[in-house]
Design goal:
single chain, about 500 residues, mainly alpha, Ribosomal Protein S8, Chain: A, domain 1, Hypothetical protein af1432, 4 domains, 3-stranded antiparallel sheet, 3-stranded mixed sheet, 8 strands, flat
């Protein structure tokens, strides 16, 4: 029995050893196969790398050849200009020689005819010849000045044409209303709410005019403030999707959407700065750049206008030989103050200068902000191109609508009048400016104060707003809400 067990153990070991040898052999075979595959892949990668290198070397050679041709063309033009200058110098030398020869001839003639001395004769001839040559020289100078003026005008027109044809910016026009599509007309009733409670809260919180009329499956939001209207549209869409349209939910969703817009504004600004390649910009300025998306001037979107000015100014500056990146930076920031006018009021030029100085922008950028509205003269070529680009962008046919802008400025002024008063939390001009809704702090103003404020604002509008169509109704809303929280144990 013992021998049998020993024999069994020996046989088992032999089988295991044989299996191990076979496994090791198979592993070595597989390793060699993997090694061959790796060598093949390495060789294939090297071949692809060489092909890639060859392809890009060809593209680089083409680029270098193009640059070399441009350099030859510029050298050729420079030689032509040098030749013309040498020619003019030869002509001038010829006139000088003729002048000396005439003096010599006149000396001989006067010496023979008159009793004048050589010095007296020379003085007489010099005066006469000087008069003749002065006239001829003046004519030459006038001719070359005229030629230089024509050449400079042609060069300026060429640069403007080149910049405008190389950059075809999208036309950014803004409307005063947004339409929201509804799945069914039943949603209109939920938006209005019981006794109009929901729509009143929506208009109070969002600061827009909500028009619910007979148009099937749609409602309209109206406001001159693009930023406020964009938030209102997004808030209403979320409320409709959520289905719970009630006063508390309205404020909650509005707060969420406002925070989302703040993040989107920052990303918008970052994308624009990256796209233009203007270097590092302060984070607060980036937010203001993004906010320009929701600002319009004469119906033209301010961010689109600023990007267009940046590109045009950069291209023109590059043609002239200035700092292209600095010109693009100044072009983008020349209207940055418009991002602050809705909140701060005042002149967008002064606001722009203030915020750019605060965050360390260069004097070129400051000068561009001042100069594009002629507060200062352009001190550098970069600023001059920004001013030219601003006029190009704003002056395109149909780019701006002055009647609309005047109406928007009047509506903004009405809101600003209300905001200046103590106790006013917010003010919204709705119904195309025919109604002013003023939300006041109930803990600061009493009912009597609210009544007096309504009358005061009505008088100020009559005295300070020169022209406005029809009547403007002033509604002062005083609401006191008390909130408590029941905490679970």
């Amino acid at each position: 029995m013992i021998l049998s067990n020993i024999f069994t153990i020996l046989i088992t070991r032999l089988i295991l050893r044989s299996s191990s040898f076979a496994f090791i052999k198979n592993a070595k075979i597989k390793a060699k196969a993997i090694e061959k595959d790796a060598d093949f892949l390495l060789k294939d990668a090297k071949i692809r790398a060489k092909e890639y290198e060859f392809q890009h070397r060809q593209e680089l050679d083409k680029t270098l050849l193009s640059l070399e041709n441009d350099l030859k063309e510029q050298t050729k033009n420079l030689k032509i200009e040098e030749f013309e200058l040498q020619n003019q110098q030869n002509i001038l030398k010829k006139y000088q020689n003729e002048y000396i020869e005439k003096i010599r001839e006149s000396d001989k003639i006067l010496e023979k005819i008159g009793g004048l001395t050589i010095d007296e004769a020379r003085e007489l001839i010099i005066k006469r010849v000087e008069s003749e040559e002065q006239t001829r020289l003046s004519n030459m100078i006038r001719k070359y000045e005229e030629r230089a003026r024509n050449e400079s005008e042609k060069n300026a027109q060429y640069i403007l044409a080149l910049a405008t044809t190389r950059f075809a910016g999208e036309f950014g026009a803004e409307r005063l209303v947004n339409t929201i599509k509804l799945a069914s007309d039943d949603i209109k009733g939920r938006i209005i709410g019981k006794e109009g409670r929901n729509i009143k809260r929506l208009e109070s919180v969002l600061g827009v005019d909500i028009i619910v009329d007979g148009t099937p499956r749609s409602i309209t939001l109206s406001s001159f403030n693009l930023y406020r209207r964009a938030i209102a549209v997004k808030t209403l869409e979320k409320l409709i999707d959520d289905g719970r349209i009630q006063p508390a939910r309205i404020e909650e969703i509005h707060e969420q959407v406002t925070q989302e817009f703040d993040r989107d504004i920052q990303k918008e600004g970052e994308d624009v700065v990256l796209e233009l390649g203007i270097g590092i910009v302060n984070l607060e300025l980036i937010k203001l750049i993004g906010k320009l998306r929701y600002r319009a001037s004469y119906g033209q979107n301010t961010l689109s206008h600023s990007i267009e000015v940046a590109y045009l100014a950069g291209m023109m500056t590059a043609e002239i030989g200035g700092d292209e990146i600095l010109a693009r930076r100044a072009g983008l920031l020349h209207d940055i103050g418009k991002a602050l006018t809705h909140d701060s009021g005042g002149n967008h030029v002064e606001l722009g200068v203030e915020v750019c100085r605060k965050f360390g922008e260069s004097e070129v950028v400051i000068n561009a902000i001042y100069a594009h509205h002629e507060y200062e003269i352009a001190k550098t070529v970069e600023v001059a191109t920004v001013c030219a680009a601003d006029k190009l962008s704003a002056g395109r046919p149909g780019a701006r609508r002055e009647v609309l802008e005047n109406s928007l400025k009047r509506i903004q002024t009405v809101e600003d009048l209300a905001i200046e008063h103590t106790g006013v939390e917010s003010a919204y001009a709705v119904n195309s400016g025919r109604e002013l809704r003023v939300i006041v702090n109930a803990s600061i103003l009493s009912d009597d104060d609210a009544l007096q404020l309504s009358k005061t604002l009505a008088r100020e509008i009559e005295n300070k707003i020169e022209k406005f169509p029809g009547d403007i109704v002033v509604n002062v809303i005083r609401e006191k809400r008390i909130k408590s929280v029941a905490k679970s144990l």
